[in-house]
Design brief:
globular; about 500 residues; 2 domains; alpha/beta; three-stranded mixed β-sheet; 18 helices; about 35% helix; eleven-stranded mixed β-sheet; single chain; Rossmann fold
């Protein structure tokens, strides 16, 4: 017997309805740092009989201090032998039972990592954090029409399993999230899986534009580099003036993966409206850690009740490989650089993320991601991190009316003692009104102002010479990534490197 067709009325999310929903949500929502130790104790108790738990005597661990004494700090290579056992379907290694999926990550390391992902982790972290982001945005913007349209996700795909070609449980975290999202989440996203999982970047972009150009797209999410590249291509392919001629209701750009400073001018040109909001998230293959919780902020709220225990090593200690001083949330200070460690319910234990953060506030805990542990140059004990380098480059470009597309910095070739210097390769969106030599001189002066240790080595000890700058042709970095088989959105070109391999190949 066929059931009669029933028309289901559409619910219109008015500003009043959005306000009511967000109030109800935040009445039950808390972000309490005190829950950190509670989570850790529960995690230790649940995993005391795993191979890792028995090896580190979790049965005797009853406090944070016990945990830090029993479990050493782990980099990926330290943890990989146990992850490999999980990849071979061995149970009760890092967690109770087996690991459901593995998020593949290359990032700036240029070799694949396999990060354990479980269904419980997705539910208690990624999906919950995604809901938090939408609720914060709705609370800050009650007039939003975000939910009346679709969200465009510049996502990844699935990859071959390293040991079993029949298994389909390895992929980029964005692909895993798309496949496992609740139904309502899938309904709100574009493009569909058939297009989203394409490997070929050029074909993927063309297919995405064709699939979405007539949809009501209200948001876009991804790294600033790939989002801006996609929007540029969409404008070019459709022959319009800007993105708002294609998707007039576009109001939100959700960015992660890297700073937006390099791409601000591009976004403002492509989305010329004061009503477009830019929200940043700290969502890695390992976990969803933080999100922007208010309009027009350049920092993020650290998520402390999302099934992760945080520790922080002062950067200066980490660079000296002194891991004994690991601070908890109650011990950190604002304005100081820390390397972040995580312990989560998917199997990572005191795991070094490789990111450097600074706290901008403690009530609540808010952070900025300021760089990577690998993003620094140390030619003459000056240890220059990424942040002052990028700020100096962007400021110099602005003073010469230029706009940087991509760049990389490495130590220069030393032909004799006291011949140390930095070498910079820059690809331009808008060429500056200067020579390479003029740009190098201004960059040098600005970097001296921003990083005193660099200035000391330049002018006091004279161990460093003026930087050498190359203006490389258009698409140089694109062709280099293509040649390396890394032309994919998750692969991030190292902006700063301590070796010259990339610089040699780019300049040649």
């Amino acid at each position: 017997m066929r059931l009669p067709k029933v028309d289901i009325p559409r619910v219109k999310l008015t500003p009043l309805a959005i306000k009511s929903l967000t109030r109800a949500y935040f009445r039950t929502y808390r972000n309490r740092p005190a829950s950190q130790e509670t989570f850790l104790r529960k995690l230790i108790r649940q995993n005391s009989k795993t191979a890792f738990g028995q090896e580190h005597q979790f049965i005797r661990v009853s406090s944070v201090q016990d945990f830090q004494a029993a479990v050493p700090v782990h980099h990926y290579d330290d943890l990989y032998p146990r992850i490999e056992r999980c990849l071979h379907d061995e149970k009760n290694v890092l967690i109770r039972g087996s690991v459901d999926r593995f998020a593949t990550s290359s990032g700036t390391t240029w070799h694949h990592k396999y990060i354990p992902v479980t269904n419980e982790a997705l539910k208690r972290n990624h999906f919950r954090a995604g809901t938090d982001l939408m609720m914060y945005y709705g609370r800050n913007n009650p007039q939003t029409k975000l939910r009346q349209g679709k969200g465009l996700v510049i996502g990844g795909t699935f990859c071959p399993h390293p040991f079993n070609s029949k298994k389909k449980n390895v992929g980029y975290i964005s692909a895993i999230l798309q496949k496992t999202s609740p139904l309502i989440g899938k309904m709100m996203k574009q493009p569909k899986a058939k297009v989203s999982y394409l490997w070929d970047w050029a074909k993927k972009v063309d297919s995405m534009i064709e699939a979405t150009r007539k949809k009501n797209i209200t948001s876009i999410s991804g790294s600033p580099a790939r989002c801006s590249a996609y929007l540029e291509k969409a404008v070019e392919k459709t022959g319009v003036k800007n993105v708002l001629d294609i998707w007039k209701n576009m109001e939100l750009v959700i960015r992660g993966g890297m700073a937006i400073d390099l791409y601000k001018n591009t976004f403002q040109r492509l989305l010329p409206s004061p009503h477009v909001h830019y929200y940043q998230v700290y969502n890695a293959s390992e976990w969803f850690f933080a999100l922007q919780h208010e309009n027009d902020r350049d920092d993020m709220l650290l998520l402390v009740e999302h099934s992760v225990f945080y520790e922080f090593i002062p950067l200066e200690k980490y660079l000296k490989k002194e891991y004994d001083e690991c601070l908890t949330l109650s011990e950190v200070e604002t304005g100081k650089p820390y390397v972040i460690l995580i312990t989560n319910n998917a199997g990572l234990r005191r795991y070094v993320m490789g990111d450097v953060i600074e706290f901008t506030g403690l009530e609540p805990h808010t952070i900025k991601v300021t760089g990577r542990t690998k993003y620094y140059i140390d030619v003459a004990s000056e240890c220059t991190p990424l942040q002052p380098i990028e700020e100096s480059l962007l400021q110099a470009a602005s003073q010469f009316w230029g706009e940087i597309d991509t760049y990389t910095v490495a130590p220069g070739v030393m032909k004799k003692a006291n011949d140390g210097h930095y070498e910079v390769a820059i690809e331009w969106k808008k060429k500056p009104t200067c020579t390479e030599k003029e740009f190098a001189s201004l960059f040098d002066r600005l970097l001296c102002q921003k990083h005193p240790l660099y200035s000391d080595e330049r002018h006091d000890t004279k161990m460093l010479l003026e930087p050498k700058v190359h203006f490389v042709p258009e698409n140089t970095f694109h062709h280099w990534l293509e040649k390396k088989g890394k032309l994919w959105w998750q692969h991030k070109l190292p902006k700063v490197s301590t070796n010259r391999e990339i610089m040699e190949e780019i300049v040649s």
